[in-house]
Structure formats: structure tokens, C-alpha cells
Amino acid sequence: MNNPEAVTRQEALATENARLRALFESAIDFAMVITNPAGIIVDWNPGAEHVMGWTAQEMCGSDASRFFTPEDRADGRPEREMQQALRHGRATDERWHLRRNGERFWASGEMMPLYDGDTHLGFVKILRDRTEEHLSGNALRQAQSRFQTITETIDAAFAIVEVKFDSDDRPIDYRFVEANPAFERQAGVNLRGKWVTEFAPDLEQFWFDTYGHVASTGEPANFESYAEAFGRWFDVRAVRVGDAADRQIAILFNDVTARREAAERLRISEALARENVERVQLALEAGAIIGTWHWDLPSDQFTVDEAFARTFGLDPALGRKGIPLAQIVATVHPDDQAGLAEAINAVIARGGAYAHQYRVRRADGRYYWIVLKKSGCCRGQAADGLR
Fold first, then answer.
1. Integer CA distances (angstroms), 151 to 145, 147, 154, 179, in order
2. What is the pTM of this model?
3. Which of 127, 74, 67 is nearest to 98 (CA)?
């Protein structure tokens, strides 16, 4: 007569085995491989066929190292996994494995020993294909590496800032979350991790309003502006980055102070030049003639009257005898010498009258604007302008 208790245990065991088998067969996204203690495959679920391509008939009886890469087989990786599983109860790894067609796939894997009481029956290895996630993590790491290399080596200053708003949603501060080395060089201060008001409590409201608008609306901004706190002009490009709720923007800017100062110097110089030209013209119209000269082309000698000689600190006697052109040109402002030479060559070539304005160093050592007028063959007058 059968023992009812033993029958109940057998039925329970059969039910548990059926449940485990159903799980083994239905886990299509998980490759489950069962081996004997020596690593020979004894069972291969549909998930293993789905992930790796081999059928159960092709793989049962084969060594499990078959789906390991050649370099892992040469390194004894399959054997070490089994030893680790026996020592620690499991062995986990993430590495490349092989498919039936020779293609490699990245899998997260776990190997566990199987026991019946104290008897070691073999191992179960569970794999999941993580190739897409792995490659995405690599396209991401490489992009981050390239981005970091670019931001650390470019001359343009780059920063990511978090804009702070008050309860009325008005921008009142911003904190530098990231900043490249060029940022510190151009800003003249290291603000990484700091709120800008810690360094510049009187920073113009323009900066808060502009960055706040970009962070709130997502509309990019391009502008040049002067920051009194930094004492510099900046050419700025600002765009929102990340989630709009983070209120963060990326800023790319260049210190254009030198260019702005050069432009201002040029503007002042041009204004002064126009003023000097006007003064020279007024001097000519008023008849302010400071002397006359005669240039003998064959001998390349200038003779000048006493008034001309006194004005330019020349010996009147030498002026009557003759002075080389080079000595006259030496008194011309360096910036005007090329233009004077061009004017002289032009008038020699074409003849006729001409007038040319340039600066000369007079006896007091200062430069003055004059107009040199030629009339006749090689005779002319020098008209005085103002400094």
C-alpha cells in the first residue's frame, strides 16, 4: 500500500519541477544553460537559442566554453568561473560572448552551482544580451571624453550655470556648475561651484535678466556686453541645456576687451585725423605759410628758405646750399613716410601741381601736421597745421 505522505511529497516535487521547467522554457530573453560538473552542456533553453543562435540539439554535449570568446578560452575564463561559483556560490561577469554566426555580443552573466543535497550536479549559467546598452554607454563615454577634451583645450571660455529665481520668478543669481580652464583665464577668477553674487555683488542686472530669459524660455542669446565687475568686454552665446526645470544654460564667451579697446583707439585716431585735416585746411585758407622749398631732382638736393629751416631746426646756411631728400624725410612721422614716398613718386611720374598732408617733427621735437604744396617744376610751399 502506498504511503500517502510520500505520494504527497512526490506530487509536490513534480509540481515544482514542472514550474521550473516552464520557467526554463519560457524565459525567451534569458539564455539559460545547464552543464554537468565538467562544464558539458546538458540543457539549453529557447532563450539561449534566441540570444546565441545555436539549437539545443547543436549544443547539448558540447563544452560551455564554445560560446566564450577565443581570448577568454585561451585565458581559462570558463574554468575560473566554475571554480568561483563553487567557492562563493555564484560568479557574475559582464563581458563579450559569441553567437553561432561568430558575432560578438555583450552579456551580463551569472553562474551558480546546482546541488542535490551534498551532491554537486553541475552549473546553471544565465546570460542576458546587453550589447545595445553597452555600446550606448561607450557612444556616451566617447562623446563625453571628446566634449571634455574640446572644452579643456579651446580658447573660448565655456561654462554651465544654474539660474536662481525668486518667489516672483525673477532671476536674482546664477551658479557656475561647470567651467573650462579658458573660463578662469578670461574671467580672471575661478567661480566653479560659486554663485556669481559672491564675487560680484554689484553685477549689472542685465546679466541676470538675459540669462534668466534664456533659462525660462529656451530662446538662445547672442550679445556683446561690458561687465564692470570683471572690467572686461565679452562676446557671449547662451543656450538652455538639460531639463527646462533645471534652469541651466550653457555659456560660450570670448574676452573681446582688446578688440573693443583697439576699435575705440582707432575711432579716436580717425576723429583726431579728421580734426587735423580740418585744421590744416583752415591754415591754408588763412595763408599760414611756414616756408618755401626747391627740390633739384638731378642732384637730389632741397634748398629751403630761412623760415622753413628755422621751423624744422635746420641750419639756414645748409638750407641755402642744399639738403638731401633723405634728411628731409627723416623728420617725417614713421607712419606717414610710405605715403609721402608714394606721393612723391606719383608727382615725379606725372608732373603738375599736388598737395600732400603728413606729420613732421619740428625743432621742438613734436610732430605737427602740414600740407606740402607743389607748384611749377619742383618748387612748393609748406602750410602749417595744428598739432
1. 10, 6, 6, 9
2. 0.37
3. 67
